[in-house]
Amino acid sequence: MIPMVYVILESRLPLYDFTCPFDRIRISFSLATPSLAPGWLSLYLPLSGTVWLLTFLTICLLPVVFKMLLQEEGRAVDRTLRMLLGQDLPGRLPAAPSYRILVAAWMVFSLVFGTAYRGNLTAALTLPTYPRRIETLSDLVAYVDRLTMPPYGADHRASYLASDSPMLRAIGQLMQVVHTTDEGLTGALRNREAHVDGRRYLEQAITHGFLSEGGKERLYLGKEIIFPSPAAFPVPHDAPYKTHFNHVIWMCVEAGLLDKWYQDTLTEAKKESRRKWREKRREEEAEGREIKGEKESGPAPLTHTHLQGFFLLFSLGLVLAVVSFLLEILHSYLHKRTSLSPPPPPPPASLHPFSPLHFPFVPCPPPSKSI
């Protein structure tokens, strides 16, 4: 008998027998926890992508509609942007009723849009925003480059490849065997891959060696299960002690000892992880290095990191303002230079064939006196 819990697979039945199933191992996958979104995305996150797209199309089309309603309108773009940003209107509004109705509708939309954006902006700045996690098997197969599993994963891979399920066959094609669980979890943390194993064992391994300084898990477990299967101890075929072992196993299961042992093991792993971090902090303190303390729970205060999107937008506006100012100076200089230059000489006038300039002037003789 081997004191190790084995998943009961069809490929293992010809090799050895099993005791009575006393546990249900859920084969799950583990991926790296997504990192926080960049701070400059705080300008975009308060509203969805569809709302931003429709608003951008409306801003592009509204000046065209203003121009169609009033041909002599020369401030359509200026009025549209000023109303959206909550500023004053340039000049007096035209008296056309249709034009004023459209302006009133755009002002109401700008009020609702600005209120919703400002209301969600504070939450987007202070609350952490994580990218979407991979939780289903279909997303897992489409995302990862490979799946890793310890050496006993060779039996799982062969079983998945022989399965009638297309999803299990796809998982079996991506699966590769690694030497240890730590090697697989480290690869999942650094590369675009996932590690596959029993859910309880993965929880213990992550808690023991893959927690951040603040106690957060750097790896997470997907919600969908790859292959739930009963588990038992392997024994030789026709072993005479199998019945006695089954009796003892059922006594432990009915007493709840399995769950108790699992919870105790998980608690000890958490304590060990905290102890390692405390020792590391003492070493940093003794060496005089900067101590990265744990982050407090609750809303985080606004810092320059949260507001970097606003600074980037402000810098972009300053650059555009400087470029516009230089273009205006260049246009004014060219216009003044053109106005001060002397006018070109007029082109020579074409002569008419019967113009008097074509004939020499001959004075007429004085009239003769009559005798």
TrEMBL record:
Ionotropic glutamate receptor C-terminal domain ranges (all copies): 92-318
Residue stretches of biased makeup (Basic and acidic residues): 280-297
Superkingdom in the source lineage: Eukaryota
Keyword Repeat set for record: no
Record-linked InterPro entries: Insect_Ionotropic_Sensory_Rcpt, Iontro_rcpt_C
Primary residence: membrane
Gene3D superfamilies: 1.10.287.70
Start and end residues of each stretch annotated as Disordered: 272-300
TM annotation in the entry: 43-66, 309-330
Keywords for the protein's UniProt record, in alphabetical order: Cell membrane, Glycoprotein, Membrane, Receptor, Transmembrane, Transmembrane helix
Pfam families: Lig_chan (PF00060)
GO molecular function: ligand-gated monoatomic ion channel activity
Bilayer topology term: Multi-pass membrane protein
GO biological process terms held by the UniProt record: detection of stimulus involved in sensory perception
Location in or out of the cell: Cell membrane
GO CC field: plasma membrane
Keyword Secreted recorded: no
Entry's family note: Belongs to the glutamate-gated ion channel (TC 1.A.10.1) family.
Name of the molecule in the record: Ionotropic glutamate receptor C-terminal domain-containing protein
Species of provenance: Portunus trituberculatus (Swimming crab)
Record lineage: Eukaryota, Metazoa, Ecdysozoa, Arthropoda, Crustacea
